[in-house]
Amino acid sequence: MRDSVGRVRTVLLLGGRSEIGLAIVERLVRDGAREVVLAARGGAEPPPGALTELGASVHSVEFDAGDPDAHTGTVAEAVGLVGDLDVVVDAFGVLGDQAAYEADPASAARAAAVNYTGHVSAGLAVAARLREQGHGALVVLSSVAGVRVRRFNYVYGSAKAGLDGFAQGLADSLHGSGARVLVVRPGYVPTRMSAHVAPAPFPATPGQVAEAVASGLRSGATTVWAPRVLRPLFTGMRLMPRALWRRLGR
């Protein structure tokens, strides 16, 4: 439950090893969160000192994005550890390599399942809990890759497009319940997961994404972009003729 001045007390991170997810959690802890649950396959150890030195108690639970039958149980376990969930950060996924996916369609399907259908089951499980509580926010890490899908990463981008649409629909379904969804659309973020990808214009650090999320939670926003310049840029890209879009996507 939020405290008497409305600050977040509890945070659940689905994707407990995500660099962006951990940056968001640390930002919320700096703002006053005191109970953190890291959910990952095999459990997730907290970053050395980063969260506990800031005064948070850190718990670890099992979470497998590819096992939708277990997602409701993961949420329930987190609630058992810390009580009501003020913020749930949905930050799991895989980036992969488009050429490898084209050479191995089965691996592409597995990646798409993690990047989309895993979020559907996890998101619905979280939404049910937030609706029952009557408060709380689900932060969904989407991507500009899903705003208009490009040739060089269309397996990943199409899954993100599906996730973005799902998150928007889920937000509408929670309207009036006291719970809400914040969709986050970062551009290129240099992390371990993206180390094999060429840098793109207008990059953001995990810390900058975390700051955008914290600001969005405070303001009640439904969508945030990181950096903000990507919003008008991709508004124009949506309208770009397809022939030109293909050329840019090479």
Automatic annotation (TrEMBL):
Q: Which SUPFAM superfamilies match?
A: NAD(P)-binding Rossmann-fold domains
Arranged from A to Z, the UniProt key words for this protein are:
Oxidoreductase
Which residue windows are coiled coil? none
Taxonomically, the superkingdom here is Bacteria
Q: Which segments cross the bilayer?
A: none
The keyword Oxidoreductase is assigned to this record: yes
Q: Please report the stretch or stretches of sequence annotated as the Ketoreductase domain.
A: 9-191
- Which CDD domains does the record match to this protein? SDR_c
Q: Which PANTHER family match?
A: 5-KETO-D-GLUCONATE 5-REDUCTASE (PTHR43669), DECAPRENYLPHOSPHORYL-2-KETO-BETA-D-ERYTHRO-PENTOSE REDUCTASE (PTHR43669:SF6)
Q: Which family does it belong to?
A: Belongs to the short-chain dehydrogenases/reductases (SDR) family.
The name this protein goes by in its record: SDR family NAD(P)-dependent oxidoreductase
What is the scientific name of the source organism? Nocardiopsis tropica
